[in-house]
């Protein structure tokens, strides 16, 4: 097996990952240097906050509708509300049948005594 394709990863991809790791390490070291500086003035914001905020605000720009996201949207937007409506409808119908048949006694109305 050639060393450049070890574990099925091409050498160019390994090099790119190494460069990204080095950039992250430099950012982390710079942040640690600033946070541990006793003479630092002003506010200091964690770079992870910037990454999180960027991903949060640009999520729709990079969203891609796939089969999985369409199915998830249909389940969350249609199936769950329809299931809850059906459940509450059946429960209300069942309780009304139990009250009408006399198997259950209606609870006393506390407002009217």
Automatic annotation (TrEMBL):
By sequence similarity, the record places it as follows: Belongs to the complex I NDUFB4 subunit family.
Region (Disordered), start-end ranges = 1-20
Tell me where in or outside the cell this protein is found. Answer: Mitochondrion inner membrane
Query: What is the protein's species of origin?
Result: Strongylocentrotus purpuratus
Provide the membrane topology annotation. Answer: Single-pass membrane protein
InterPro entries recorded = NADH_UbQ_OxRdtase_NDUFB4_su
Recorded GO cellular component terms are:
mitochondrial inner membrane
Q: Report the protein name in the record.
A: NADH dehydrogenase [ubiquinone] 1 beta subcomplex subunit 4
Entries under PANTHER family matching the protein: NADH DEHYDROGENASE [UBIQUINONE] 1 BETA SUBCOMPLEX SUBUNIT 4, NADH-UBIQUINONE OXIDOREDUCTASE B15 SUBUNIT
Q: Keywords of this protein's UniProt record, alphabetized? A: Electron transport, Membrane, Mitochondrion, Mitochondrion inner membrane, Respiratory chain, Transmembrane, Transmembrane helix, Transport
Membrane-spanning parts: 68-89
